[in-house]
Amino acid sequence: MSATSEPHKTDPEAPLVRKALEGDSEALDKLFARNTRALYQIALRVLGNREDAEDAVQEGLLAAYRNLPRFEGRAKFSTWLTRIVINAARMRLRSLKARPAVSLDESPSGEERPPAERFADPSPNPEQVYAGVELADRVEENLEKLSPALSESFRMREIEELSTEETAKALGVSPNALKARIWRARRALATGLEAGLRGAFAGPDAGQEA
């Protein structure tokens, strides 16, 4: 556990979060139980299938459990969990779309293995699930540095995945004006993320002569 990990100061679940970060498994179980229903509804909206939604929630909670020491309290614990489950659901959706539509019960021909053996489990592992959340956190940090117009445009179009027309209508701008905002936001985010990576690799002694 990171010594600097602290729950978000406005998080109503902060006492439980603090105990969970200290290794209290019962507190963590309570946090998961409190949020599971809402997480399931979110996963269901993404996947449209109950079984897949349940799997995505389980994958997300496993990723949260394994990466709990990396929770830094920059967002509420429920928000952190939601990001992880949304990422798990989206990864599962992409995997399901990429899989061939073949019956798992069809008879094999010759020496060919049955489809059930040929196709690997599409489920993302916890590290893959959490990697997307870490990137989302870095993007969010850089979004806060943009103007409200640029950040809101980017969030609605790229994160909430509204169409260009829906986003432009909601913001009261033309589609071309929205596209210009998105382009500027992407350029600024790319610059910010690149600078952040350079700083992370350079370390605290960067720029100092040996």
Molecular structure report:
- With 210 residues, the chain is an all-alpha fold.
- It has two domains: 1-99, RNA polymerase sigma factor, region 2, helix turn helix motif (Rna Polymerase Sigma Factor, Chain: A); 145-202, Orthogonal Bundle (Arc Repressor Mutant, subunit A).
- It is 67% helix and 0% strand.
- It has helices at 14-21, 25-47, 50-66, 77-98, 115-118, 126-143, 148-159, 164-171, 175-202.
- Helix 1 packs across helix 2, helix 2 (25-47) crosses helix 4 and helix 7 (148-159) crosses helix 9 (175-202).
- The radius of gyration is 21 Å and the shape is globular.
- Mean pLDDT is 75; it is low at 102-120 and 203-210.
Distance between the termini: 33 Å
Fraction of residues in β-strands: under 5%
Rg over CA atoms: 21 Å
Query: What are the segments in which pLDDT stays under 50 over at least 5 consecutive residues?
Result: 102-120, 203-210
How many separate domains? 2
**Helix proportion:** 55-70%
Q: Which CATH class of the largest domain?
A: Mainly Alpha
Which geometry do the CA atoms define?
Answer: globular
Individual helix count: 9
What would you call the structural class? mainly alpha
E-strand count: 0
CATH topology of the largest domain: Rna Polymerase Sigma Factor, Chain: A
Order of helix and strand elements from N to C terminus: HHHHHHHHH
- The CATH architecture designation of the largest domain is Orthogonal Bundle
Overall average residue pLDDT: 75
Largest sheet entry: none
